[in-house]
Design brief:
The chain is built from 14 helices and 24 strands. The protein has 541 residues and is α+β, with helices and mostly antiparallel strands.
Length: 541
């Protein structure tokens, strides 16, 4: 199938690009492929949403019914000192990036569903349930488009009765907006050396739940952020969020920086015990947990952003690392990158160009408020890694609040997250409490709430470069950390009656968070797209 533009991924960047392309030229043929069973099924974010880009894309979004229903009414920020004590931070001492006046608490999945409706109304074709599995190239090395994965292939690699071949989608330009750690984006960065001269990308894992709470506890519009405990006990960085949205619901989550060094850390279990802190438990008590999910977030900032253009296409949104970690927000910057990409590509197509390197994107992006915002806050993440949450935030206050990001230096953060792990015997073991079934829960019951499903008889989408590494290298050196960094119980070390150990991959459980692809110390695990429609089915994350 031939199109002017093919877009991979129906997230905020991809859908914004699709809408903007058709706004600029309604003659353009534009197609979006999405691996989730529907638009929004794989979308997970906190999310406090800054409407800057949405105001530009659809100035009449309120009249069009965009699902922004809860405006932030109050910001509370705490430093959790221990499992019992906390210090509320006066607003005067909070980096201004953490103030949320004029922002909204939303379901990003529902916003993407709404954006998809706008895109289709503009004439964009959207194909949910089709996973882009391969980049196609012209003979000159430029991108030709993508191929979707075959359906109905068994574990043995043979075609089943349900077999349906994938399809090739050819385009004059292909936009890759797969979100954090996109598996095709990884290939493109390597092929075209887009990260040459850049710092390594950095990541966190965000784990989130939605709760329905008693009406008398509900404070619609309240935003709570914390730093410190429980991650501080292991010397790890990160922070939490708790937001009161509409319909007596609360969203709660913990972001663990994947730069942590203790291989005994389990981000899932850190999150479960965090909910028992009195500052957090008071919002959840008497409530019912209704949804669970996890997703890696990209947080390296400008220093880690690859070149975003290459022959035949663009990398946009979190696939290129546009999230603003100082704000813990990336939807607005992802949308803006998509809109800039659309404007550059529409102009190139109007000039009769195709399949070339739209190098002018870099200048257009650099002139935008999105780049300027990321430049202003470029030192936040490295400061957190260098000095920890408390001193890093103090630096950020001086850098951002006082000097407005204009200090004449850029901090470096040169060590990849996976290389931060220390040997297990050099680190303290962590005794996580058993879940109580009221505030804390186990992994399997959590995965059940994510509505995750994969066709069981299909090739495993979690590929090991060397099958011996987990047991022969990672287990003795790091106590195989995949058992703990995965928030879905995908990886296990199991022992048979003779005491022999083997590495078991429960791919059916995978929530597509990509943490294994990022944090494995041997870089031995590669996440690839499973059959279309596989993975979580988030209703409103």
């Amino acid at each position: 199938m031939e199109y002017d533009v093919v877009i991979v991924g129906a997230g905020p960047a991809g859908l914004s690009a699709a809408c903007r392309l058709r706004q600029l030229n309604e003659e353009l043929t534009v197609c979006v492929v999405e691996k989730g069973s529907e638009v929004g099924a794989h979308i997970l974010s906190g999310a406090v949403f800054e409407p800057t880009a949405l105001n530009e894309l659809f100035p009449d979004w309120k009249e069009k019914g965009a699902p922004l229903h809860t405006e932030v009414s109050r910001d509370d920020i705490y430093l959790l000192k221990s499992g019992e004590s906390a210090q509320k931070i006066p607003g005067l001492f909070v980096p201004k990036t953490m103030h949320n006046e004029g922002n909204y608490i939303i379901s990003l999945g529902n916003l993407c569903r709404w954006l998809a409706e706008q895109a289709e109304a503009l004439g964009v074709e959207i194909f949910p349930g089709f996973a882009a599995s391969e980049v196609l190239y012209h003979e000159d090395g430029s991108v030709k488009g993508i191929a979707t994965g075959d359906m109905g292939i068994g574990m043995n690699g043979e075609q089943k009765d349900s077999y349906m071949p994938g399809m090739e989608l050819h385009a004059k330009y292909t936009l890759f907006t797969e979100g954090c750690r996109g598996h095709l984006g990884k290939q493109l960065i390597a092929k075209y050396e887009l990260d040459k001269g850049k710092e390594p990308q950095h990541y966190g894992i965000g784990i989130k739940e939605i709760w329905t709470i008693p009406p008398e506890q509900h404070q619609q519009g309240l935003v709570v952020h914390t730093a410190g405990w429980p991650l501080s006990e292991s010397g790890s960085a990160g922070g939490s969020f708790l937001y009161h949205i509409e319909d007596n619901q609360v969203v709660v989550g913990l972001i663990t920086d994947l730069s942590y060094s203790n291989p005994h850390v389990s981000p899932f279990d850190e999150f479960q015990r965090y909910k028992h802190h009195p500052v957090i438990a008071q919002h959840l008590k008497g409530g019912t947990r209704t949804a669970y999910g996890a997703r890696a977030i990209v947080k390296g900032g400008l220093q880690s952003q690859p070149k975003m253009s290459f022959p035949g296409g663009l990398l946009l949104g979190d696939n290129a690392g546009t999230l603003n970690f100082a704000k813990i927000k990336g939807s607005h910057t992802a949308m803006k990158s998509g809109m800039i990409g659309a404007e550059v590509i529409a102009k190139a197509l109007g000039a009769g160009r195709a399949s070339d390197d739209a190098v002018e994107f870099a200048e257009a992006y650099k002139k935008s408020w999105a780049w300027k915002e990321l430049h202003q806050q470029r030192n936040f993440g490295p400061a957190q890694h260098k000095w920890g949450n408390l001193l890093g935030s103090a630096y950020a206050f001086i850098d951002i609040n006082i000097f407005n990001g204009k200090l004449p230096w850029t901090l470096s953060d040169p060590t990849p997250d996976y290389a931060q792990l220390k040997p297990a015997d050099q680190c303290a073991k962590i005794a996580y409490p058993k879940p109580d079934g009221k505030l804390s829960f186990d992994k399997l019951s959590s995965v059940f709430l994510s509505n995750t499903n994969h066709e069981e008889d299909q090739p495993c989408h979690l590929k090991l470069k060397d099958e011996s590494v987990p047991i022969q290298v990672n287990l003795p050196k790091y106590d195989e950390p995949a058992q703990r960094y995965c928030p879905a119980g995908v990886y296990e070390v199991v022992e048979n009656a003779e005491g022999e150990q083997r590495f078991q991959i429960n791919a059916q459980n995978c929530v597509h968070c990509k943490t294994c692809d990022i944090k494995d110390p041997a870089q031995n695990i590669t996440w690839v797209a499973p059959e279309g429609t596989g993975g979580p089915n988030y209703p409103n994350m």
